[in-house]
Design brief:
By secondary structure, this protein is α+β, with helices and mostly antiparallel strands. It is about 35% helix and about 15% strand. It has a single domain, classed as DD-peptidase/beta-lactamase superfamily (Beta-lactamase), CATH 3.40.710.10.
């Protein structure tokens, strides 16, 4: 573990982030668990800290939606407008749930005025209205463009077909069955004191600061609204790893972790330097490291690896070929500069991977 510890300590000493937490396992056995620095002012990084997992929240949300698919309440080919009748015009009639879960819908990423919306503490209903009405970027199913609004609309579909709030659905259908006692979407007021603070977020220093404010955390946004301890995130990942516990059927796990994007071309959100119009594989929620997206998560992982990152400075990686799970948290936002931010996360994952294979 010395290489992992040394690397993280060096990043903290250089001011790249204030604190970090990492856990890595092979064959279900923990090989690395390390905490360093401060998760927030006067809050040391440790096993009880709740970290904003940002876009990794999407996997919790898609996991919930897939339970509705298993129950027959939705199908991947359900047209969005059949559940949300206002979602029409500009080609929206052709958008299916599958397109939302694979980022092939053509919906915009998020509000172009998202920072102003955060500062104004815009209600979720207004964000949903914008996702429903903003012009599509391309014909559904013709390309891939990663978007928070895809997951927001998928979550809203789940609310409509069940008549339940999305937060309740995620808690009752994912968090509780997985016995995740330190995972919240959204966190209750009683837990706010143990949540890490993220540097360089949108609307930083205001009452609407992304990930750091009671307003933003309270949204329970399906695309970025979850907080969890590193151990809970590792336990969540176990449910998708070989021979792990399951709340989904094996058929659902297979569908979620294999390419469902239909061979579309696009620009991967995380891979700089790849062809601007290359093939982008995507599962249902999960990003995929394949021959078309090498070293997406880790230079050392297999082409069967899947995972997801979060702009708050976190990554979750599952390699079924080696039965390795790695969860890494830090607390500086990607807005500091994607290349450096992404490189330091990958270097920590590489170090964890090497330790797991020793």
């Amino acid at each position: 573990m010395s290489n992992v510890k040394t690397l993280i300590d060096r990043y903290i000493n250089k001011g790249h982030f204030a604190g970090a937490a990492v856990i890595a396992s092979k064959d279900g056995v923990c090989k690395v668990e390390h905490y360093a620095g401060n998760a927030a002012p006067n809050l040391a990084a440790g096993p009880d800290v709740l970290w904003p997992i940002a876009s990794i929240s999407k996997i919790f949300s898609v996991s919930m939606v897939m339970r509705l698919v298993e129950q027959g309440e939705l199908t991947l080919n359900t047209l969005v407008h059949q559940v949300l009748p206002r979602f029409t015009g500009d080609g929206r009639e052709r958008v299916r749930l599958r397109h939302l879960l694979t980022h092939t819908s053509g919906i915009i990423y998020e509000s172009p005025a998202m920072e102003a919306r955060l500062i104004a503490q815009t209600p979720m209903s207004a964000l949903i209205d914008e996702a429903m009405t903003a012009p599509l970027l391309f014909a559904p199913g013709s390309s891939l463009a990663y978007a928070d609004y895809n997951t927001l609309l998928a979550g809203h579909m789940a609310e409509v077909v069940t008549g339940r709030s999305f937060a309740d659905l995620v808690r009752e259908w994912v968090i509780e069955p997985m016995n995740l006692r330190n995972t919240f979407m959204p966190p209750p007021a009683s837990e706010l004191g143990r949540i890490a603070k993220v540097r360089a977020v949108m609307a930083e220093g205001t009452d609407g600061a992304m990930y750091n404010s009671a307003y933003a955390l309270g949204l329970g946004h399906p695309a970025f609204g979850t907080v969890a301890t590193v151990r809970d995130l590792w336990q969540f990942a176990q449910h998708f790893a070989p021979n792990g516990p399951r709340i989904h059927s094996e058929a659902t796990i297979r569908a979620m972790t294999t390419d469902q994007a239909g061979g579309v071309l696009g620009q991967h959100i995380s891979l700089a330097g790849t062809p601007p119009n290359g093939r982008v594989p995507w599962g249902l929620g999960w990003g995929l490291q394949t021959i078309d997206t090498p070293a997406l998560f880790c230079d050392l992982a297999s082409h069967r690896t899947f995972g997801h990152g979060g702009a708050s400075g976190c990554q979750l990686v599952i390699d079924p070929a080696e039965n390795i799970i790695i969860a890494v948290f830090s607390n500086t936002h990607v807005r500091i500069g994607r290349d450096m931010w992404y490189r330091q996360l990958q270097s920590m994952i590489n170090a964890c991977y090497a330790q797991c294979m020793n």
